[in-house]
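[agent] plan:
  1. take the single chain provided in the ticket
  2. run structure prediction with default settings
  3. attach structure tokens to the ticket
  4. add a short note for the reviewer (M.T.)
[agent] executing step 1
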Amino acid sequence: MKRLLVPVCTTLLAILPIVLLEGCGGKEPGSVSITRGSLRLGCDEAVLPVVQHEIREFTSLYTDARVAVRDAGAREIIAEFAADSIRTIVCARELNKEEREALAAAKVSMQEYLVARSAVAVIAHRGVPLTQLRVGELDTIFSGTMTHWPGKRGMMIELAVGGLNSSVNEVFRRSILGGGGFDPAARSFPASRELLSYVSGTPGALGIVGLNWLAGNEAGVSVIAVATSAMRPDSTYAPGEYYSPHQAYVYQGYYPVIAPVYVYTRSIEQDVSMGFIAFLASAAGQKVFQNDGLVPATMPVRLVHLTSQQVN
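[agent] step 2 finished; step 3 output follows
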């Protein structure tokens, strides 16, 4: 059943009213405030397109603010955050136990904000004979147990995954492979743009990519719907329904590979970092996430039923 995701109010993070009031005046020309000055932002490559969109909207509203992006894989960005070379980062997964313990041992004081929910999309070359896969099938394919496409005699499965530091890899391995490793023969792509190009141009290719990288690139690949044997929204549904990474299914938790988007900051000043975080949590910032295919996290949403057909 198709459902559209729609925000219904403008509830913001608790910091937002305080922060925006301070940014409206009372500062000397040229001084630093939440809307004036510079921010060096670390960005997980998995969510780079939507973060760039957020920056454009933020700096168009606050023309005295400048945001420079340093993008890389999640592990690399988190390592730079721990080393204090970048003080604010956006990451498409939550910090894991080891990272939190390391930051605590280093006595790093930080704040974290959940700003959106994304997903890991499974994509395939248009010539691949399947448009739906079960979690068990994904496990056997990405672990290397299954190497040829059923129904296509002789067609090899050409796997494409993220780079060594990729949050997409970590979320997928945890959700689908039970923490296990990928097939050693899988091709690794640190840049999602390169992975998309490889999958769209390589017969038999199957890959994984952050959901917001599909915006504008859907025509070149087939997006695979995924099913788990236990998934049953309610008693009217048969177990094992297939779901694509549509916003509504991410919001409801039906799609099985969901990735939260967090902002982490070491900044305690009323500077551009706090202004940008407040913007991400505001109605305008949440609308950018929604328009780019992600699910807003700081605003209530409602689902609008449009048709009885499943979203593809």
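[agent] step 4 note for reviewer: The domain at 119-252 is CATH 3.40.190.10 (D-Maltodextrin-Binding Protein; domain 2).
[agent] ticket updated
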